[in-house]
Amino acid sequence: MKRLSGLTLLDEREGDGRVVQIGDPVVYSRQEPSIAYSVSCCTGVGDWVAGGDRSEYSAASMSQRTLFPCPSSPNCVSTHATDETHAIAPFQYKKPRAEAKEALKAACATLPRTKLVEEDESYLHYEFTSLMLRFVDDVEFLFDETTKTVHFRSASRTGHSDLGVNRKRMEQVRALVGRQL
Fold it and tell me: What per-residue confidence (pLDDT) applies to 1?
């Protein structure tokens, strides 16, 4: 075991050795780079990272969230990506952040097999599960109040190709939320 910034990396062989800060989303890969498991430090959820003392998690660290970059595999889209395979345009909002977030939550709630797993003032994390094979995709939304922009990342946890499912899903969310933001 190795101690990292108040977090314990339980299986060092599976991690990539990066030092993380409290509140940062963490992704470690298993066996190959295209298979990633999202672990959130803020909730202590996951089988590789266990949270230390909960008093370490402050509102200040929660507001410093970022979206993890997409892997090289084509099963991810992100508003922070710059390459054509992974890049997608963010959503803009005009309402106050809290209202825009509620509108986005309402739109996501209409989609099947969707579960909100984490939320804070400027962040939403959903799990979308496929009907047939029960694959889980992680979708994260990050609200930037300064630019009135919703950045997001949608990524498959397993496999190499998603046949465009993540991009289609995010365009479906864009259409559902439309002018409600």
Answer: 33
